[in-house]
Amino acid sequence: MSAASNTAVSQTALFEFLTRMGDNALILGHRVSEWCGHSPALEEDIALSNTALDLIGQTQLWLGLAGEVEGRGRSADNLAYLRDARDLRNVLLVERPNGDFGKTLMRQFLFDAWHFLMLKALCGSTDKRIAEIAEKASKEVAYHLDRSRDLIIRLGDGTAESHRRMQEALDDLWAYSGELFIGDALDAELVAAGIAPEPESLKPGWDELVGEALSEATLKKPSDGFMHKGGKRGLHTEHMGFILADLQFLQRAYPGATW
Amino acid sequence: MTAVTLPSTSDVWQWLAEVPDPEIPVISLVDLGIIRDVAFDDDTLVVTVTPTYSGCPATAIINLDIERALHEKGIEKLRLERQLSPAWTTDWISAEGREKLRAYGIAPPVDGTAIDGILRQRVDRLSGRSNLTIACPRCGSANTEKISQFGSTPCKASYRCTDCLEPFDYFKCI
Question: Residue span of the signal peptide, if any (chain A) (predicted)?
Answer without folding.
Answer: none
